[in-house]
Fold Methyltransferase domain-containing protein.
Amino acid sequence: MIQNFYDKVAKKFGIYHTGAKYSKEYLAGDPEEIFKKNLLELSGKAKIALDVGCADGRFTLSIAPYFKKVFAIDMSKGMLGAARKLQKEKGVLNVSFEEQNANKTTYTNDMFDLVYSRRGPTPFSEFHRLLKSGSYFIEITIGEKDCQEIKEIFGRGQGFGEWNSSRLDEDRQKLKDNKFEITFAQNYLYDEYYSSYEDLDLFLQGVPIFEDFDSKKDSELLREYISQYQEKKGIRFPRHRVVIVAKRI
Ligand SMILES: C[S@@+](CC[C@H](N)C(=O)[O-])C[C@H]1O[C@@H](n2cnc3c(N)ncnc32)[C@H](O)[C@@H]1O
């Protein structure tokens, strides 16, 4: 179960970040920056936001000063523990980290001015219920071609084999079906370059690309990947992200 995965990561690393060293090279802009820019354009000191699948809360705490209040939900007790610890360290008062299932929250209708999901779950009908009419949902999510090359070598992984089912088109359609109007939708393909075998191995331990990744058992497959994708700049690791902004009708 995915929740066990996130609890395991929180226990092992303390936060949702392994410290693996890598650089990034973008062809059409940094999707994280574009997501954040869109989010901040829709922020406001009188607004209440919902962060869906907040994990260790680092991102939540970084954008909290732009809102009146942010409710941040997750189902992993380990991640919520890490988030509350970080909140205490940073002294941020206007965030409430809560254990809630995004599919069926306990919040009232029309409670939020903005709902966002940064690689978290996306139950759009629940988001429609929670958002005020005319307010926005923003997501950055994982595209179908993310890490396709390493998944093909491993013969498994998140979304394995679904290389041609467009996540952007699927989410666009689901949002329309749930009475949202799309105002922005874009695919981003880019490359990460890992410094060493150890860095890529460490990175794979902290992300659900292979939920069952095992440094020992998978070492031969990882060496095979590196032998094919080692370049001067480092070990190339192609990524795919999707950014969508939608208005609740
Ligand atoms: C990739 S992480 C999100 C990272 C985080 N948003 C960030 O900015 O670093 C996905 C998170 O979604 C949470 N999650 C998955 N399904 C959920 C659900 N149904 N309700 C609430 N949280 C969920 C997981 O526990 C995990 O912490």
User: Anything to note?
Assistant: The pocket of S-adenosylmethionine is lined by residues 2-3, 6, 16, 53-55, 59, 73-76, 79, 101-103, 118-121 (CB under 6 Å). The longest strand covers residues 180-194.
